[in-house]
Automatic annotation (TrEMBL), chain A:
This protein's UniProt keywords: Glycoprotein, Glycosidase, Hydrolase, Signal
UniProt keyword Signal, yes or no: yes
Protein name: Beta-hexosaminidase
EC number, as in UniProt: 3.2.1.52
Beta-hexosaminidase eukaryotic type N-terminal domain ranges (all copies): 19-150
Signal peptide: 1-18
Family: Belongs to the glycosyl hydrolase 20 family.
Catalyzed chemical reaction(s): Hydrolysis of terminal non-reducing N-acetyl-D-hexosamine residues in N-acetyl-beta-D-hexosaminides
Family matches, as Pfam families: Glyco_hydro_20, Glycohydro_20b2
UniProtKB/TrEMBL annotation, chain B:
Domain Beta-hexosaminidase eukaryotic type N-terminal: 21-153
Pfam family, any one: Glyco_hydro_20
UniProt cross-references to Gene3D superfamilies, sorted A to Z: Chitobiase/beta-hexosaminidase domain 2-like, Glycosidases
CDD domains cross-referenced by the UniProt entry: GH20_HexA_HexB-like
Protein source organism: Somion occarium
Signal peptide from the UniProt entry: 1-20
Reaction(s) this enzyme catalyzes, per UniProt: Hydrolysis of terminal non-reducing N-acetyl-D-hexosamine residues in N-acetyl-beta-D-hexosaminides
Glycoside hydrolase family 20 catalytic domain sequence ranges: 176-508
TM segment ranges: none
UniProt entry keywords in alphabetical sequence: Glycoprotein, Glycosidase, Hydrolase, Signal
Family: Belongs to the glycosyl hydrolase 20 family.
Enzyme Commission designation: 3.2.1.52
Protein name from the UniProt record: Beta-hexosaminidase
Amino acid sequence: MHSIIFLYVLVLVPFTVSIWPIPRQLSTGSTPLKLSKSFNVVVNMHSTPQDLLDAVARSESGLKSDSFERLVVGRGSADSTAVHRALSLDALVLSLDSGRLIRSVADEATVSIASRSESYTLSIPARGQARLVANSTLGLFRGLATFEQLWYTLDGDKYLLNAPIEIADEPAFPYRSFSLDTARNFYPVDDILRTLDAMSWVKMSVLYWHVADSQSFPLEVPGFPELAAKGAYSKEEMYSVNDVELIIQYANTRGIDVVMELDTPGHTTAVGFAHPEHVACAGKSPWAKYANEPPAGQLRIASNATVEFVKRVFQSVLTMMTSTMMSTGGDEVNLPCWEEDEETIDVLNKRNIAIGEALNEFVVAIQGVLKANKITPFIKGDMILTHNVPVTNDTVAVVWQSSADAAGIAERGLRFIHQPSNYFYLDCGAGDWVGNNILGNSWCDPFKTWQRAYSFDPYANLTEAQFPLVLGGQMPLWSEQSSSENLDSIVWPRLAVAAEVFWTGGTLPDGTSRLANNVTGGRAAFSRLNELRYRLVDRGVKAIALQPKWCVLRPGECDVDA
Amino acid sequence: MGGYLFSVFVLFAWVPHIYGLWPIPRSLETGSVALKLANSFRITANVPHPPSDLSDAISRTVGHLRTDKFERLVVGRGSADSETIQHARELKSLTLALAPGSPVRSISDEAILPIESRSEEYTLHIPSDGSAASIEANSTLGLLRGLTTFEQLWYFFDGQVYTLEAPVSITDSPAYPYRGLMLDTSRNFFPVTDIKRTLDAMSLAKMSQFHWHATDSQSFPLVIPGFTEVAAKGAYSSLMSYSSKDIQDIVSYAGARGIDVLVEIDTPGHTAAITESHPEHIACSHASPWSQVAGEPPAGQLRFASSATANFTANLLTAAAKLFPSKFFSTGGDEVNTECYANDSQTQSILQSTGQTFEQALSGFMQTTQGALEKAGKTPVVWEEMVLEHNVTLSNETVVMVWISSQHAAAVAAKNFRIVHGPSDFFYLDCGAGEWLGNDVSGNSWCDPFKSWQKSYTFDPLANITPEQSHLVLGGQQLLWTEQSDPSNLDSIVWPRAASSAEVFWTGATLPDGSPRNVKSALARLHDFRFRLIQRGVSAIALQPLWCALRPGLCDGDS
């Protein structure tokens, strides 16, 4: 006789919804429900804004064209009996709370960051009509994104297994963003639009556009066409005024505000292609002495002509924006660049000031342009923490070098966004891109996995009194090693992590902590993120596989401790 | 008149001769005369009864010369050459010829010859006066390699296809015959079109072997006649499997592009997917915790001590071998987990009743499976553990793939086995993307860091190998394990990095000017290769900002 020991794994299939980011409050039942053949979305509102109607039409058509089957062994066929017997949902009815102003989604998405209304309630009964109610069209738009993620496909039917569903939702932080660098390598407009679509599906609220840098200046600035004419990689690799208008409008109508960054005074070599008189140490060798990466070059901040020029450029870029926010950058300024620049030395000597004072004056001058236009200025954290420049009280700092820097910004009472390289940088871990460096790794090794990013705590090291200073955060893609060819795969689905960290906040709908042990396991966030990834692929976004499909179909069985 | 003393500093960018050839030929002479293709440019095969795959290759080259539309990577791109192109002479034809006495066989037939007897050498001459260019070789495979070189010589601007470096004289042959790429189609599935696009890109880098790691524990996508139930139940779905027709399609597509398909059915480990159709052959199937009995989930290995399982495996391999014309066939053999069998009562009772040790039983299994392959006319290929960690008897013909560490090649050579280099510390394309297991917040990939193209490029195939052993080195390959990859990122994770080893094993240690191969001079050519891939629809990743790609040397660490 053989004594056989079988080790069976009991699979607990969580019949929760796979919404990403997961709503703040959520209750579900266990009744199957399918969309009726005549299902439609009804907007119960007089004079509905066009962009809300467009959003509704996109939702309806997305629901029809999605072909995503539930991620279980056997896929959709496992649910075939349930779907066959399911009752039907006839309509989703959208309405605003009584007395609310009717404004377009785009207008709501660009009001000041502190006063946006994104909350909504969604109620899906076991049959009949679902209701989506909000205080603003932007809230309705967020609710539509949730509604779209509830359904699976089988043989032409769209169904779910967990009606009735009740959701009351709102973001923990208003600022949930992606920062894209379009200067190191260029991205065609279509790539940006596809990225905005995907961002809107996970309720992201801001595109932070790092549009120019030392390598190229692809932005057509009204009144300064020479900047892009000479600074862009080519005339095909630049964003015209029309392109920018299209991108901003496309973003805004999808609930996304566009914050432009013109990085100054460093990261500006490409300005010198058109205006060599404004750039110190341009192309100077060895670059490693004068810049963090090639080519070297920084704005001649001590020169009055340069300051006036930069002010006019900012003034012009402001006219292209719909946002109330703009960033003047400010990272990684290099002192030897200026200290060896004869023009700069002359000015400093004549005025008998140090370079630090010139830097202060420069920042005050540029921030002055924003202030005069009622624009909230963003600035990189090192301007404050390293260079101690005086900034206006309403300045928002971008904390990027380390998550540990947030506390220092908070101590100064400034608002800030989290963009820590040790959690959120999408480009880390791909090796060194500088030539002739065989053993070089990326400066921010290792690769930031989704689990690592998910473990970020926006309130770490902050006192409760400082919590209101946190506007949210963003994951950046620096593009030294990225371009159109790998945009989707390096960004998705990892970017969605920032969406949940800053939408859902510290607490999951069942009351447990989002930062608890086991939350990145397959029976928790991992299965939802896998589902989001497959939904993105279904909609034409080349999001990367996080696991073998075997694991995806068996939540939890590929956990490290399974 | 006062004299003015002008001191003019001009930065002379070092312009490399032959901007874009990848891999760079063994012997190469170029001039500085501009030449453009005539509108009537054509390629003629001066070969009696040219095989159809040679004619097809010529048609593809003519097509690429017209459609690549790749502008030279310099500031201003093609416009920088505009004046020169205007006045360039025209090249009207390229003639292909086989050396007298060479047999006329199809490229496909030449590509699957035993690896030691393949003929890939060729000569290429392009006169500067516009008279006909010529490629001569000893085989159609050599002619294909020459056509590939020819395609990489040309740039596009304003409707013209031109070079700036005529005359060109090349004598070329590979340093190593095995220049491969391994793709795992089990962890995640890749449609046939993805594999074909990858084969096209491999062919552009003169790669000779597609190592197809077809099956593993997660899925078994290979439909094998007589064993169709294995894929029917073990593939992710019927749409995610390779039919006999798909396999034939892939094999012939590869062959016509000078690529031999080495299929691997990994045994006895990495076989949990077989449990879906044949649970009787799998020990510790889906056991938990998986980490005690397997390298990754799901657990499950062939119950090799069982003669029924050994026979099943031998028959399966024999049937699979018929689908692939290659001489090579790999039975895998990596990461056999002994704990799996220690806990398997059937294995333990067989070992007890036969009085065999674990290693003796494994050796018996290997003799059964390798014997079946040899009977099918195949040269067996195994992973390194089968010779370095296990005491199994293998035929002297066996080819051993080194993967765990580049340090292990010497030990394989000491046992006098032929070697294919695929070391994880140089050639694994998947490293550095973090942990894919769930619930592991700070986990990194086991083979961190990411293997940059520079790291791969500096691999020395003869490190720690004596001159007497050097004949054992067949070549090497980069590998993509696909726990974190699928069609969404295939191109971007593979290209252009996989071209690094193509040059390591084609060009060898020395550049045509006699200097050592080095990353400093390679970068500009690799940029060129990457942009050519993009022109052909392969989404190869950017290695640097375009600013750097247009200014060779200015983004070096020391510039």
